[in-house]
Amino acid sequence: MRASRGHSLFSRHWGRYLAFIAGSDGRSVHALRDPTGALPCFHTAVGKARIFFSDLALLLGWPQFSAEIDIDYLALNALAPQFQKSITGIKGVTEVLPGQIQTFSQNGIKSEFGWNPYEFAEGERLLEPGRASDLLREVVVRATRSLASAQSSPLVSVGGLDSSIILACLAGGGESQMLRAVNFSTTTPKGDERRYGQAAAVFAGVDFIHRPLDPAHVDLAEMMRIVPQVNPMPMFDCTSPAGGVYDLAMEVGADSLFYGVGGDNIFFQLPHILSALDYARTGIGTSALPRVIFDAARYGRTTVWKTVGAMIRERLRPSDPFNLVTGLVAPSNRWPYLGDALLDRGPRLDLLHPLLLPDRDVPPGKCAHILSAAFLSIPYYDHWRPQYRIERICPLLSQPVIELCLRIPTWNFTHGGVDRALARHAFRNMLAPEVLHRTSKSTPDDLYEQVLARNLPFLREVLLDGELVRSGVLARGPLEELLRGMAPRAIGPGIPLEFFSWETWAQSIKATNRLSLLS
Fold this sequence. Notes:
The chain has 24 helices and 14 strands.
């Protein structure tokens, strides 16, 4: 391992880890972070020392440590909150990126990547759907049970297809774990999955717990008193306090929380005809061509002729995959509320994780797959309840699962034009029929609507004269109009709450470090 500078660690082992390996020259040190980035690792220079840390609270209060909020990070976070960045929200604090090897020596810092998702996407493809299905089930089951092997009392948040798969994997493990399933629901049908959660629990033979998501439990004033992390929340989420998930975990004696987070990403849930464009781009035979065309048209909700036309154009004049994909997924509903100074800077896409920017000929669907599945930015610490140290585990974002899914062509994930079809086929004997055949998605939007309605005066007070407006990150006029009442349907109630989380982060850093927000 020492001779390979840690490269062998990425290919032979997986899990949550940070590694520091002495260089073979005896004068350098290699710092490695696992490809999923499951554990945070930041570093900064303090005097002549270089400090590595995971929690900003460990540095706050040091007289030798000072910081300045990086406006470029906030701009990029507005465009691509879910993607891993190469910078942090604080200047002078950098990150050992997922899959990266940083070598520290007297000559400075040298960076390289020991894990590259494109190598799996471009390697041997699993073209036969049956074989891909069998391998998918095997790898997801093994990864989930491996992650649970050190846990005695897991609690699984269940309701949708992906979380039900995790529950099924754990329930069939045969270990003597105290396994429970919990479902959190809103007061309206669009956020109520308890029927599916209960069906999954009964089919798995485990206890089922239901808890409502109560907006009264979301105390935004309390959030103003949190100790910040290096970065603001990538996306605002108040379901944890609304459902009292940590209180419930302590009540039932759970030592870990398992989630199906990442299933939409690795099982390729993106409603478009990207799978057909991939087939045209790769030029792999014609045997599956009719199936691919009809599946993509059905999945993308378009006509067969439009699908065929798009495939021909893709074959003759290949699209720019990155621009096509970011055009489909970029959250543009934030832009009307950003300040001119921030917009003038523009989105520094070059500040994303370098491996998210394809430097090779990659099909657009697989580009989307890599962008969403590899290096997905999932916070390790809960911004709302940092005092709780119960493990939060997302098996579908583990390295073996990601690597396998990247080897599977996108058109095999949409077989029959059905959402996450390959995963459904792989786990068809392990899931309740109600869950297996469900294609609808729930949303907590009505929870956010209630939180927003309950806190509008407080949000106006905090945001309109806050740090982000004063620094030009947010535009006061459009923001004031947004906060007059309920957010327009095209914007959604989560956006003003997300701005609040940014403001909270900025104010917390300023208060704790006695900083001024500088541009």
